[in-house]
Amino acid sequence: MNLLQLTNKIKEAADLHPLVNQVADGSIYEALNTGDVRYPISVVFSQSVVKEVRTIRYKYVLYFVDRLVGDNALEIQTTAISVIQQIINTLGNNIENISIVDGYSIQPFTEKFADKCAGAFVQFDIVSDNRLFRNC
């Protein structure tokens, strides 16, 4: 599986979640500063690709963000943590020949983009077979 295919699978898993109204890829700042966001939004960002001996390690950041309304940051962050875990579980259970590396950390946040928002993000790794190695 290549970077484009894997990114699309992550976006599909996020889009299938009933609490996600919009999915974007790339920069969180670009996605949330457009002024045309349908909250809650999930944003997928590919950080790097590391070729290892027999595998390829894809490093991703996945965000779940909602607009703050009053003092509901903790509620949004709690929901975000749950949604992120569910999306990662969906990936691990439904895509063949990959594994999600255990031990990821989910970080809650509040931030001002075009709107004042709250949510959470996770940095996680996906390991896939190195197809180039298998063909040598």
Descriptive account of the structure:
The protein is α+β, with helices and mostly antiparallel strands and about 140 residues long. About 35% of the residues lie in helices and about 40% in strands. Strands 1, 2, 3, 4, 5 and 6 form a six-stranded mixed beta sheet that branches.
Instruction: Please report the total strand number as a whole number.
Output: 6
Query: Helical region count?
Result: 4
Gyration radius (Cα, Å) is: 16 Å
Major sheet:
6 strands, mixed
The coarse overall form would be elongated
Beta strand %: 35-45%
Q: Could you state the order of secondary-structure elements as H and E?
A: HEHEEHEEEH
Distance between the ends: 17 Å
**Helix coverage percent:** 25-40%
Note poorly predicted spans: none
Summed over residues and divided by their number, the pLDDT gives a mean of: 92
Helix and strand composition category: alpha+beta
Question: How would you summarize the topology of this molecule?
Answer:
Elements: H1 3-16, E1 22-25, H2 28-32, E2 41-51, E3 55-67, H3 73-94, E4 98-100, E5 105-112, E6 116-129, H4 131-135
Parallel strand pairs: 1-2
Antiparallel strand pairs: 2-3, 3-6, 4-6, 5-6
